[in-house]
Amino acid sequence: MSKDPIRAGEIVVFNVDGREIPIVHRVIKVHERQDTGEVDVLTKGDNNFGDDRLLYAHGQLWLQRHHIMGRAVGFLPYVGWVTIIMTEKPIIKYILIGALGLLVITSKE
Amino acid sequence: MHSFGYRANAVLAFSVTILALICGIASFSDNFNSPSPDAQVRVLNINWFRKKPDGNDEVSLTLNISANLESLFTWNTKQVFVFLAAEYKTPKNALNQVSLWDGIIPSKEKAKIRIHTTNKYRFIDQGSNLRGKDFNLTLHWHVMPKTGKMLRDNLVMSGFRLPEAYR
């Protein structure tokens, strides 16, 4: 993730302590300290009614830089489905790896 | 070399490559669009302005936002996300950005907006620095493509000032 400062409007990827699936939401509030450059950030899903405080850890009001893993810069349609299908139906992952393995073994030269 | 498996694999790999290329070209075509949006924001009223029990200032504003964002749309645009942020400095914080309102514009036909509203999200400071505070109202837009690179830009409108006293 680039060292650029986090600004309102950017879409960031973050992990909440204790939850395994990262969330990709937009930054709606930024408070950046004068002296240390540390930042308090609040995020919200664009089409959600309220901000993400309900999703943060108990008592947590802001995200800091170390919670944020990256930012979204573009969009590729349907590519995410590959990961989703393989996570939700792991059998497909095994079939794919099995088939690839079979191809490697049975191909000559 | 000519088995069904090899042919199927070749077709699949080729079609994925072509699709990726089409996505790249579609995204690149957005560079030829030179957007010229214009916007105007007025603070119609300070509804109330107080220090909360936790010590942080909060203000409620009624805003009038008018903008023409039609030039942002291309054939490769899925929607435009637009939001208005109040931006200001305090002794402790080099930068504060607080989103006051946002909206989703799904198509070019809906891109001329006239909004009359109180702030959708609470304008709360970290601390008690808002009395007499000068601030900018910046209209940000985020063009979300059907495929490819997203485009973000904004228009800064300065010259706004909060009252010297709570009310």
Automatic annotation (TrEMBL), chain A:
Organism domain of life: Eukaryota
Membrane topology: Single-pass type II membrane protein
Main location: endoplasmic reticulum
Any one GO BP annotation for this protein: signal peptide processing
Membrane-crossing segments per the record: none
Protein's job: Catalytic component of the signal peptidase complex (SPC) which catalyzes the cleavage of N-terminal signal sequences from nascent proteins as they are translocated into the lumen of the endoplasmic reticulum. Specifically cleaves N-terminal signal peptides that contain a hydrophobic alpha-helix (h-region) shorter than 18-20 amino acids.
PANTHER family: SIGNAL PEPTIDASE COMPLEX CATALYTIC SUBUNIT SEC11 (PTHR10806:SF6)
Name this protein carries in UniProt: Signal peptidase complex catalytic subunit SEC11
Organism encoding this protein: Sesamum indicum (Oriental sesame)
Gene: LOC105180290
UniProtKB/TrEMBL annotation, chain B:
Pfam families assigned: SPC22
Assigned GO CC terms: signal peptidase complex
Membrane topology: Single-pass type II membrane protein
Top-level taxon: Eukaryota
A biological-process GO annotation: signal peptide processing
Keywords associated with the record: Endoplasmic reticulum, Membrane, Signal-anchor, Transmembrane, Transmembrane helix
UniProt main location, coarse: endoplasmic reticulum
Keyword Amino-acid biosynthesis: no
Cited InterPro entries: SPC3
Record localization: Endoplasmic reticulum membrane
Family, per entry: Belongs to the SPCS3 family.
Xref: PANTHER family: MICROSOMAL SIGNAL PEPTIDASE 23 KD SUBUNIT SPC22/23, SIGNAL PEPTIDASE COMPLEX SUBUNIT 3
Functional description taken from the UniProt entry: Essential component of the signal peptidase complex (SPC) which catalyzes the cleavage of N-terminal signal sequences from nascent proteins as they are translocated into the lumen of the endoplasmic reticulum. Essential for the SPC catalytic activity, possibly by stabilizing and positioning the active center of the complex close to the lumenal surface.
Protein name, as recorded: Signal peptidase complex subunit 3
Organism lineage string: Eukaryota, Viridiplantae, Streptophyta, Embryophyta, Tracheophyta
